[in-house]
Structures are given as C-alpha cells and as structure tokens.
Amino acid sequence: MATILITGGTGYIGAHCCLALAAAGHQPVVYDNLSNGHAQFVKWGPLVEGDIRDAARMKAAFAEHRPDLVLHCAGLIEVGESVKDPASFWDNNLVGSLTLLNAMREAHCRALVFSSTCATYGAPLQLPMDETHPQNPLNPYGWTKLAIERANQDFARAYGLKFAHLRYFNAAGAAAREGIGERHSPETHAIPLALFTLLGRREGFKIFGDDYDTRDGTCLRDYVHVLDLADAHVRAAERLLAGGESFAANLGTGDGVTVRELLAAIARVTSREVPASSAPRRDGDAPALVADNALARRELGWSPTRGLDAIIADAWEWHGEVEGRVFG
Ligand code: NAD
Questions:
Q1: Among residues 141, 168, 212, 223, which one is catalytic?
Q2: CATH 3.20.20.140 assigned to 176-221+254-327
Q3: How far is ligand 1, taken at its centre, from the CA of residue 13, in Å?
Q4: Going by CATH, does the domain composed of 3-172+224-251 fall within 3.40.50.1380?
Q5: What is the pLDDT of residue 282?
Q6: Ligand 1 centre from 271 Cα, in Å?
Q7: Nearest alpha carbon, ligand 1 atom 39
C-alpha cells in the first residue's frame, strides 16, 4: 500500500482517481485549494486545504503525510478562459507545478503522475495521434501543460524524478453510485451541456462550428470514461512505484465521435432529442482529436472498458438523479 498525494483531488478526475486508488488498496491524501473542487468529493482519505503555489503549505503536507508518489491533477482547465486570461493560467498551472516539483525534491518524493492533455498536440497532422505526434498547442492552456511536461523532463534528468505524463482525451461519465461526477463551473464540456439542456438547466445546445473537415462538419472527439482514466492512473502509479521508467501515454479510446454523432447517442440512451443549433467555431478548438492508445495498452496493460453509451448513461444518472442530492 502506498500513500499518494492527489493535487486537485476534490475535482472531477482527481476524485475518481481517489476512488480507484482506495479500491486498489492505496491511501489517497487530497491537496486542493477548493477553487474549483468540492469538499463533498473527499471520501477516501484526508483533505489538506492548500494552494499548490504555497510552498510552506506544500512542505508541511509532505512532512505530515510522507507520500510515496504525487498524482498531480490540480490546475485551471478551461481553454477559452486561458485565451482571455493567460496570466492566471501560467501562474496557477506552471508556477504551481514548479512549486510542487520543488516541494517533492525537498521531501525526496520522486514519483509523479501528471494530468496532461491531448491539447499539447494542437491540430492533428494525422489521426489517430500517437505520443510522437509533434506538440504544438493551439491555446495557452495547452502551452502551460506542455511547459510542465518539459519541466518534469528536466527534473527527471537532473534530480532523478520518475514521471508519467498521462495525456487525456475527453474525460466523461461519472461514478454516480459513489456520489461523484462532473461538476465544472462554468461547464464547457459537450456531454454535460447537452444533458443540462434535457434537464431544463440550459435553453439549447450549441454546436460550435459545422464547417470543419470531418465526416459531418462538426468537431470530432475521443470520449473516455473517467473510471477508465482512473484505472490508468492506478496502473501508472504502481508502475513508477515498482521502479519503472518515465513515460508519456495517451488515454483515449481510439474512437472518434462527431458532435452530431454524440447527440444521436444521447437520444439513443435517454430517449430524448437534444435541441441543438449551429454557432461559430470557438477559439482554440482543434477540428479532430483521436488517440492512438497502443502505448498505454502495451505498457500499462490498460484498455478502456466503457463505450460511449455507458459514458452517457453514467453521466445521465449523475446529473439527472445524484448531483442534486449531493449538492442539496
Ligand atoms: P477540475 O477543475 O474538476 O479539477 C481541478 C482541481 O484542481 C479542482 O479541484 C481545483 O480546486 C484544484 N486546483 C486548481 N488550482 C489549484 C491550486 N492552485 N492549488 C490547489 N488546487 C487547485 O478539473 P478536472 O476536469 O478534474 O481536470 C483535472 C486535470 O486533468 C487538470 O489538470 C486538467 O488540465 C486535466 N485534464 C482534464 C481533461 C478533462 O476532460 N476534464 C482533459 C485533459 C486534461
């Protein structure tokens, strides 16, 4: 059993990772400033309330909990916001990550699983994209994540850090029965936005761009269940703790779904049509993002087990039945 510090552990992906780590017999310790997270999601270990940019607070957390590994999910995530306010993103994501790396170094904690993203690749040169695809982000969010990957590589070379860069494609779904699920503010992800429309929480669903070079003109994305992502984190952590080498791995299903296909799947699962209309393209959106996940399959023995309909059904259960109970 390992003690694992999870920055951003009260957020969407961090909370599901806590669930999976605890189920695998590890001890999660959450470190989060609650800026975008939820104390209700802390169920499997203690919460240290703190900012990753606060060096003294980080140092105290390492001294108290002596983690064997850090799973670093904390960060600002909204792409459009990063275009409008890059200063906050560079400060929160990069300065925060450097503060964390220094705290780890000081505490002799040498294993890091980092929440990276397919947004580090930018516009695809070919599909699906594997880990050798050039990294040329389209927005400040992606650039902060790429800069952190670079810092991790330099710390690995000089100070013996071992890292796993997990490049997620589109996380979706929920563990509704465990009382956790997606809850971003503002919400910008397609599945919750479409379901909010069905629940009367939004007027209509906007399709941002219908003139892309894809099979129906709408953006193509690779939706991966958050519980499959969480499973990959456990595997990555255990690999590093067993002395494995640093690596970067895509986490996606390899199946691309257009926005129109997503809406058709939602209609199939919920038996209800989402009222949708076309809107202009959004700044910073790539036309298509689909993972080649062969490396994660080979190196981690990982494979996504839940398809698009299961993702939608779990998100529907979360937003439709459980979220309101959890947040009163
Ligand atoms: P989220 O906003 O739900 O969670 C992020 C958490 O980090 C929140 O709990 C927030 O309070 C915390 N946080 C932010 N800044 C902090 C700081 N300075 N100090 C301490 N805590 C701080 O987001 P998420 O969807 O769970 O994403 C988690 C990670 O995964 C992020 O790093 C994101 O970039 C990455 N990612 C997410 C997706 C996705 O589809 N959601 C895709 C690719 C990558």
A1: 141
A2: no
A3: 7
A4: no
A5: 86
A6: 32
A7: 171
